């Protein structure tokens, strides 16, 4: 069994576990610490070290980040501390952990996991995973190959970032009923469908646990819409998958999945 460690850095918690890559499942029960606030690099790196050191893991570590990641560098930070912008995050995590580290966008990680082990397994053509949480994350696949950092949560809808209107945080913020929120999600899906004509859309993120409350409310459309299957574990599994695909040049730090294929 090949085991790589995966860490999912989320708005409320930082969760990690060794991952069984052959089966796409956690090899041990995950460990979680609260995400520090403010969520600047130093505090988050400390919290990540605490999660990884909870286990006796020696080997590559993959980490998710809720922003654009290119070659291990974090480039944007829409919903986290702006101190991440421009940071060589893979190198920083690698040094702090003393292990090879790979950093990948959070939605891309979830997408890798779903396309390989979950709702998108064996599905050819254009497959899009959308995560509805604090923001809206996206992972775009063509015949199983990831196009990283698509950032479709920032498509413009009614003059605003779509995620400001249609994320699950927007539902909370505006105290929207499920039907009212579903209308906004439909408007967003219209836009995405028009631009990308996906054959399959996988709905992930925390709210996908309650998919039966809103997926049936969405209008009929050409695109098949299904809930994510790995739920809470998709980020951890996908981060570990990204790390297993990265070939560190020096043995410390990592290249990031941004320039690598999804398979
Ligand atoms: C970020 C994306 C991220 C998504 C979900 C957006 O605000 O720009 O990079 O994937 O939130 O966390």
Task: Summarize the biggest pleated sheet.
Answer: 6 strands, mixed
CATH homologous superfamily grouping of the largest domain: ATPase, nucleotide binding domain
Return residue spans where pLDDT drops below 50 for at least 5 consecutive residues: 249-263
Instruction: Label the CATH architecture of the largest domain.
Output: 2-Layer Sandwich
Order of helices and strands: EEEEHEEEEHEHEEEEEHHHEHEH
Work out the radius of gyration.
Answer: 17 Å
Q: Considering DSSP H and I runs of 4 or more, what fraction of the residues is helical?
A: 25-40%
Bound molecules: beta-D-glucopyranose
Number of helices: 8
pLDDT averaged residue by residue: 93
Counting copies of identical and different chains, the oligomeric state is single chain
Could you give the count of β-strands? Answer: 16
Based on Cα principal axes, name the global outline: globular
Class inferred from helices and paired strands: alpha/beta
Domain tally: 2
Describe this structure in words.
Helices cover 30% and strands 25% of the residues. It contains 8 helices and 16 strands. The protein folds into 2 domains: 3-108 and 233-245, 2-Layer Sandwich (Nucleotidyltransferase, domain 5); 121-228, Nucleotidyltransferase, domain 5. It has helices spanning 41-53, 89-97, 106-117, 162-166, 168-173, 178-196, 211-214, 234-245; strands spanning 3-9, 13-20, 25-26, 31-34, 61-65, 69-70, 73-74, 87-88, 101-105, 126-132, 136-142, 145-147, 156-157, 160-161, 200-204, 224-227. It is an alpha/beta fold and 263 residues long. The radius of gyration is 17 Å and the shape is globular. The strands form 4 sheets. Strands 1, 2, 3, 4, 5 and 9 form a 6-stranded mixed sheet that branches. The protein has a 5-stranded mixed sheet with strand order 12-11-10-15-16. Helix 1 packs across helix 2 and helix 3 packs across helix 8. Bound molecules: beta-D-glucopyranose.
